[in-house]
Amino acid sequence: MTISETDCLTGYVLHTRKFQETSLLVEFFSRDQGRCALLFKGIRRQQKKQLSSRAELHLFRKLAVQRLSRGELATAKVIESLGDYVPLVGQAAIVGLYVNELIYRLVGRFEAQSALFDAYDRLIRTLRVTPLDLKALRIFELAMLAELGFGIDFRFDASRQTTIKVEGQYDFFPEQGFRWLARPEGSGYSGADLIALGDGIMSDQGAKIVKLVVRQVVHHLLGGRPLKARDLLESPQL
Prior knowledge:
Layout: E1 8-19, E2 23-30, E3 34-40, H1 48-55, E4 62-67, E5 73-81, H2 90-106, H3 114-129, H4 134-147, E6 156-157, E7 162-163, E8 169-173, E9 177-180, E10 189-190, H5 191-198, H6 204-221, H7 228-233
Parallel strand pairs: 3-5
Antiparallel strand pairs: 1-2, 1-4, 2-3, 4-5, 6-7, 8-9, 8-10
């Protein structure tokens, strides 16, 4: 069988697990094919050549891989690692695991998501330099939801079908958006903060708001099922 250029994928490993005695099942996120399952046969054999290939299947490492077959579970091999590999450690690794699970749980198989892939690529590169850049994480979360068709409109009041007002206080509902609070009683989100987010300004307060509303949307999209990365790692930033 002749392998075409479409069988060469650029992307990142989201998750791996052992398969039979010598192989690995890999959830791979590629720029052109979206999320796909790949089987790397024999990659766990204790041979020098195989160990070299296996070492490249690290999380957060940008790779070029080649599919050797088609279908829901394609066999594949590593072609090369793209760029210098700097592993994520500490808080950066926690953020990376959280983002990987978001993609794994929310992105369908074989759905090309080039803009989302580019946003993920930027975030990983940022985390290598600034391990706990929460604003970069929040920007990625918003970009991800927008690309998946669940973008958040920070300038629209769903209850009154008008624009958010600077002096207003608002609550948020995943299926509706922001709604005016007639009696805020100290709760809710400031209209001024929401308008700033709508203008693309990510302040510290704005990042806190994004964290809360994204958490609500993700909870809704997952049907209330928890994210393992958030629960197991117990990170307050997520």
